[in-house]
């Protein structure tokens, strides 16, 4: 087991990618804190699945944009499970809006959750990691943070900033034996994807833009998170790993389709 006896905190751990990461870490031997905001029942179900795998688990509610709640989340993890070896910042939201129509309130909501939340959680976890001699932080970005995404005015900037946040933390905390990396998923089979592509026709058209002709599965992102959290990636920090079925490299493929 690559994460035997590690303690991992996963924000947004009750659904989608976060759930997949929570379970993947547990299968690799980690005890898991399932962080959630509004999905208490789903978090408890994930806790039960982790415990069925023979690992310790607990759920903890926290708004990742609220410093006091984040600090309580990390304290609870340490007080209950003894330490924090891994933090996976998965909690995130998206809103569909053109830049010209994007409200300040929606901008703040997305930036606060996706960017500020990753900052606050990383900073709070790092305080314990520094004291214990090291740790590992994995942030979830997006391909929308690497290329302009139409009608995602706040989402793309938030995820682009998460990637740079990871690089800065990786450099500053390397001396404390803390590694920080970012995973940039493409369109992934989650509730957020169902929101973004609500009809079968929209989904089919979106899949056609992906060279592998399918959406990424949450378990595939989780497998990458396990790798980055393990000693197999001991020399990797400040890295951005794209998991998108080839979408970022599909410009000329799309051009050929338009021209033929």
What would your notes on this structure say?
There is one protein chain. With 260 residues, the chain is an alpha/beta fold. It has one domain (7-198, 216-248): NAD(P)-binding Rossmann-like Domain (Rossmann fold, 3-Layer(aba) Sandwich). It contains 9 helices and 7 strands, in the order E-H-E-H-E-H-E-H-E-H-E-H-H-H-E-H. Strands 3-2-1-4-5-6-7 form a 7-stranded parallel beta sheet, with helices on both faces. Helix 2 links the parallel strand 2 and strand 3 (57-61). It starts with 6 loop residues before the first strand and ends with a helix. The model has no long low-confidence stretch (mean pLDDT 94).
Outline the fold blueprint.
Elements: E1 7-11, H1 16-27, E2 31-36, H2 40-52, E3 57-61, H3 67-81, E4 86-89, H4 104-132, E5 135-140, H5 155-173, E6 178-185, H6 191-196, H7 200-208, H8 218-229, E7 240-243, H9 251-259
Parallel strand pairs: 1-2, 1-4, 2-3, 4-5, 5-6, 6-7
Helix pairs in contact: 1-2, 1-8, 3-4, 4-5
């Amino acid at each position: 087991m690559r994460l035997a006896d590690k303690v991992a905190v996963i924000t947004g751990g009750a659904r989608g990618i976060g759930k997949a990461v929570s379970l993947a870490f547990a299968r690799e031997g980690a005890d898991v804190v399932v962080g959630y905001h509004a999905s208490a029942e789903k978090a408890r179900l994930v806790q039960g699945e982790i415990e069925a795998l023979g690992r310790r688990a607990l759920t903890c509610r926290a708004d990742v944009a609220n410093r006091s709640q984040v600090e309580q989340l990390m304290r609870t993890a340490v007080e209950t499970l003894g330490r924090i070896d891994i933090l996976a910042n998965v909690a995130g939201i998206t809103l569909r809006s053109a830049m010209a129509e994007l409200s300040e309130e929606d901008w703040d909501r997305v930036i606060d959750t996706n960017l500020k939340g990753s900052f606050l959680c990383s900073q709070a976890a790092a305080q314990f990691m520094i004291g214990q001699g090291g740790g590992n932080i994995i942030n979830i970005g997006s391909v929308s943070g690497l290329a302009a995404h139409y009608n995602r005015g706040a989402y793309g900037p938030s995820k682009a900033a998460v990637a740079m946040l990871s690089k800065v933390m990786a450099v500053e905390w390397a001396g404390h034996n803390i590694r920080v990396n970012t995973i940039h998923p493409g369109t992934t089979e989650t509730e957020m994807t169902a929101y973004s592509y609500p009809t079968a026709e929209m989904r089919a058209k979106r899949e056609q833009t992906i060279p592998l002709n399918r959406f990424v599965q949450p378990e595939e992102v989780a497998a990458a998170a396990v790798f980055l959290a393990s000693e197999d990636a001991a020399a990797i920090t400040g890295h951005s790993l794209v998991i998108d079925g080839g979408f970022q490299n599909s410009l000329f493929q799309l051009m050929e389709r338009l021209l033929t």
